[in-house]
UniProtKB/TrEMBL annotation, chain A:
InterPro entries: AHP1-5/YPD1, HPT_dom_sf, Sig_transdc_His_kin_Hpt_dom
Location, primary (coarse class): cytoplasm
Domain note: Histidine-containing phosphotransfer domain (HPt) contains an active histidine that mediates the phosphotransfer.
Assigned GO CC terms: cytosol; nucleus
One term of GO molecular function: histidine phosphotransfer kinase activity
Protein name per its UniProtKB record: Histidine-containing phosphotransfer protein
HPt domain residues: 26-128
Organism this protein belongs to: Durio zibethinus (Durian)
Residues modified as Phosphohistidine: H67
Keywords for this protein: Acetylation, Cytokinin signaling pathway, Cytoplasm, Nucleus, Phosphoprotein, Two-component regulatory system
TrEMBL record, chain B:
Gene Ontology molecular function: DNA binding; DNA-binding transcription factor activity
Modified residues (4-aspartylphosphate): D85
GO biological process terms on file: cytokinin-activated signaling pathway; phosphorelay signal transduction system
UniProtKB keywords: Activator, Cytokinin signaling pathway, DNA-binding, Nucleus, Phosphoprotein, Transcription, Transcription regulation, Two-component regulatory system
Summary of the function given for this chain in its UniProt record: Transcriptional activator that binds specific DNA sequence.
NCBIfam families given in the database record: myb_SHAQKYF
Superkingdom as given in the UniProt entry: Eukaryota
Region of interest called Disordered, as start-end residue ranges on this chain: 159-210
Protein name: Two-component response regulator
Domain Response regulatory: 34-149
Family affiliation: Belongs to the ARR family. Type-B subfamily.
Organism: Durio zibethinus (Durian)
Family annotation (PANTHER family): TWO-COMPONENT RESPONSE REGULATOR, TWO-COMPONENT RESPONSE REGULATOR ARR2
Length: 138, 680
């Protein structure tokens, strides 16, 4: 399952970096980070969606949030999410509201897909236990 | 970081070398490195913390810039390095960077998902020691300790350098610095500080002074090399690393170059704002003077003219400079105009003076001021000597000088005044720009800035130089910014620059010692003159130019003892033959100061007050203001403050001053200048 993430390019090497950070003291580090990420990203995505429809539109605000999302997605290795967010931001900066909105929907989709896929993955890890974790390919 | 107290004390240096947080055993380094990481994104923060922990660093995380600053302030020696995100909701990352650089002088690494060239460049110009692109990998974090080491080495080195260069000066400076920092200095400084309207400056100065660290002294020669390297690479492509390679100066670090470059760029920016000849400025600058103060060139342009006239400056540079200067003056906040006029007037006569002065001054400012002064200061001491001869012209020059710095006309007036008496001698202080007034002997109160700037320079410079009116120049040190403020305050005392920390000594000098025995070591004094300009220009960048001009004179005069960091040693011997005439009768001390021959030799702000006819008196007063502008220009040029203000500090200080100064400056019109303050 894990490998499929990389094959599908949903996750990139940054994710592996996170995995490397796990150790005895933080056995569930990756899961913790991802949980933190999703908590934040879900809120941000909702905010962006709302702001994009707002009148009058606060362009800089949306741009800032997009930038932040881009950073955090990149930090966890959420490859596709990051790409879509980057595209959204570019369009937004160009003033292409419609284009940005459409791309944003893509980003959102990728985000939800990732979340949906990771959940069972972590569950599997937890079930496997520490031994399995240790054996997990790094 | 312990390095912050670089004040020359060897002990500090050694402790810096140890840098240890105290708890970590040296062997274990870099383990235990105390890192403060600031990022509003919780995900990134968590990841970074974990990564840093894995590197065996001691991590403190923080999600708000304000909180981070508080933490740093409460525990100045509690951290070794800071990593900060660029985009944060409560404060811009670059602003935080500046604060840290100014107050604590810790190495700061910027971080962002944004990898655009402009953003990264901004990081460089604001003094970040590195820039990481998100997502950050642990490999990138493993090596951050190098920045800590490098910084410490620089400080240590600066410390050593300065110490060896001028033992005496250093000590003086240090003590002066200490004084400054403790703000208890001889009162001159303090008073000048008080006088300063600019609270900011004071604060900054205090901060910087407390931070005193040994800094690289950007001597004229060094600056020259720097500018040469930059020009060789092309201003756009000039990156610290390459510049460093080209310069090939042992012991110089990339950091030094980077911060100097930052200042230089600001200077250039200011110049360009003023004159179109920016590019030219640099060249003439270099050519004309050793002080490659490029940026100053713009200011100097004005002076250059005179200088050129005197044969000192290459004609072309003069033209450029002048154009620049002129352009600038007008461009600048408008205030410059008055100066400009003045300058033109004088430009011929004192060209030499200016340069000489400028040079000297520059040197002191080490980086910053040099730029400013560059123009005038490039005049090497010998030039100054010649300037003396041109004493007459000096008056003018001074005027110019002042005009430059003082953009605000005021200075000019001061200068002018000063110039009068001494028309001869390199009234270097002519920075006073008020040239019109003092046509001749403007010893130029080298912008009191110098004086103020000299704050540090003074180290012992008995010279009268700087006597209060003098401030101009040398003080370019961070104090410069004050000049503006100060000058207004110190009417009589050319020192108004008083703000320039170093200047305080100068101010006291006011007594004009006309013959400037002043060794005015205007350490950064140079800047002060700028400050004056600053006021005028308000535009920081611009002021710089103008100011520089003024400053250079002053600075040079003050022998920039200010150097603090400045390499006043540039032998700014501003030999202002001032006969300390008090140009308006008041600022005489200022005038004298101008004489402060900035014997900035080695950056030690020894301003050899040789004949500095510092008409500084009047000039000084104005200059002080000007000095400020210069300061800003150098901003970081640790100018004035002997403390080694980071250039960034100075820059900001200067910039601040500039802003504040501009309005005030105008009041300085020397004539009406109540030089009373000048303790003549």
């Amino acid at each position: 399952m894990r490998q499929s993430f990389f094959d599908e390019e949903i996750l990139d090497r940054q994710f592996i970096q996170l995995e490397k950070l796990e150790d005895r003291e933080n056995p569930n580090f990756v899961e913790e980070v991802l949980t933190l990420y999703f908590r934040d990203s879900t809120t941000l995505l909702a905010t962006i969606e709302r702001e994009m429809e707002n009148v009058p539109i606060d362009f800089p605000k949306v741009d800032r949030i997009l930038h932040q999302l881009k950073g955090s997605s990149a930090s966890i290795g959420a490859n596709k999410v990051r790409n879509e967010i980057t595209k959204t931001r570019e369009l937004w900066q160009q003033g292409n509201r419609e284009g940005a909105k459409a791309t944003f929907q893509e980003a959102r989709k990728e985000h939800d897909t990732l979340k949906a896929k990771l959940e069972p993955y972590f569950q599997q890890l937890r079930q496997a236990g520490p031994a399995e974790t240790a054996m997990r390919p790094r | 970081m312990n390095s912050s107290s670089g004040k020359g004390s060897m002990s500090t240096a050694s402790s810096s070398a140890a840098w240890k947080t105290g708890d970590v055993v040296p062997d274990k380094f870099p383990a235990g490195l105390r890192v403060l990481v600031v990022d509003d994104d919780p995900t990134c923060l968590m990841i970074l913390e974990k990564m840093l922990r894995t590197c065996l660093y001691e991590v403190t995380k923080c999600n708000r810039a304000e909180t981070a600053l508080c933490m740093l302030r409460e525990n100045k020696n509690g951290f070794d390095i800071v990593i900060s995100d660029v985009h944060m909701p409560d404060m811009d990352g670059f602003k935080l960077l500046e604060h840290i650089g100014l107050e604590m002088d810790l190495p700061v690494i910027m971080m962002s998902a944004d990898d655009g060239k402009h953003v990264v460049m901004k990081g460089v110009t604001h003094g970040a020691c590195d820039y990481l692109i998100k997502p950050v990998r642990i490999e990138a974090l493993k090596n951050i300790w190098q920045h800590v080491v490098r910084k410490r080495r620089n400080e240590w080195k600066d410390f050593e350098q300065s110490g060896s260069v001028e033992e005496g000066d250093r000590q003086q400076k240090q003590s002066e610095d200490a004084d400054y920092s403790s703000s208890a200095n001889e009162g001159n400084w303090k008073s000048s500080k008080k006088r300063k309207d600019d609270e900011d400056e004071t604060d900054e100065r205090d901060d910087t002074s407390s931070l005193k660290k040994p800094r690289v002294v950007w001597s004229v020669e060094l600056h020259q090399q720097f500018v040469t390297a930059v020009n060789q690479l092309g201003i756009d492509k000039a990156v610290p690393k390459k510049i460093l390679e080209l310069m090939n100066v042992p012991g110089l670090t990339r950091e030094n170059v980077a911060s100097h470059l930052q200042k230089y760029r600001l200077y250039l920016r200011r110049l360009s704002g003023v004159s179109q000849h920016q590019g030219n400025l640099n060249n003439p600058f270099i050519s004309s003077q050793e002080t490659t103060f490029g940026p100053l060139s713009s200011l100097n342009g004005l002076d250059l003219q005179t200088l050129a006239a005197t044969g000192q400056l290459p004609a072309q540079s003069l033209a450029t400079l002048q154009a620049a200067g002129l352009g600038r003056s007008t461009a600048k906040s408008g205030v410059p105009l008055p100066l400009v006029d003045q300058r033109n007037i004088f430009s011929f006569e004192n060209p030499k003076l200016r340069f000489g002065e400028g040079q000297q001054q520059h040197m002191n400012n080490n980086k910053q001021i040099n730029l400013l002064h560059g123009i005038p200061t490039t005049m090497e001491p010998k030039q100054l000597a010649s300037l003396h001869h041109t004493a007459q012209s000096i008056g003018n020059i001074n005027m110019q000088v002042t005009s430059h710095g003082a953009q605000s006309g005021q200075n000019s007036s001061l200068l002018m005044q000063m110039a009068q008496p001494q028309a001869r001698g390199p009234t270097l202080d002519s920075t006073v720009g008020h040239a019109p007034r003092l046509p001749s002997s403007m010893g130029q109160p080298i912008l009191s800035n110098g004086i103020a700037a000299n704050v540090s320079t003074r180290n012992g410079i008995p010279e009268n130089i700087r006597a209060p009116g003098y401030n101009p120049v040398s003080q370019t040190s961070s104090m410069l910014n004050f000049p503006m403020n100060h000058t207004s305050e110190l009417p009589g005392n050319s020192f108004p620059l008083g703000s320039t920390p170093g200047i305080s000594s100068l101010t006291s000098r006011r007594a004009f010692q006309e013959e400037v025995n002043s060794e005015i070591k205007v350490p950064s004094g140079f800047m002060p003159s700028y400050a004056i300009f600053n006021d005028l220009n308000q535009h920081k960048p611009q002021n710089w130019e103008l100011e520089n001009v003024g400053m250079t004179f002053d600075a040079s005069q003050h022998s920039n003892s200010l150097q603090g960091n400045l390499d006043l040693t540039q032998s700014v011997l501003v030999q202002q033959g001032f006969s300390s005439r008090q140009v308006n009768g008041q600022s005489r001390s200022a005038a004298v100061v101008s004489k402060a021959v900035f014997s900035a030799a080695d950056g030690t702000e020894h301003v050899i007050a040789q004949n500095v006819n510092q008409h500084l008196d009047s000039l000084l007063v104005d200059n002080t203001i000007r000095v400020k502008s210069e300061r800003v220009a150098d901003a970081s040029a640790a100018n004035l403050f002997p403390d080694h203000f980071g250039q960034e500090d100075l820059m900001s200080a200067l910039l601040k001053q500039q802003e504040g100064i501009a309005p005030a400056e105008n009041e300085f019109a020397f004539d009406g200048y109540s030089m009373d303050n000048i303790p003549g």
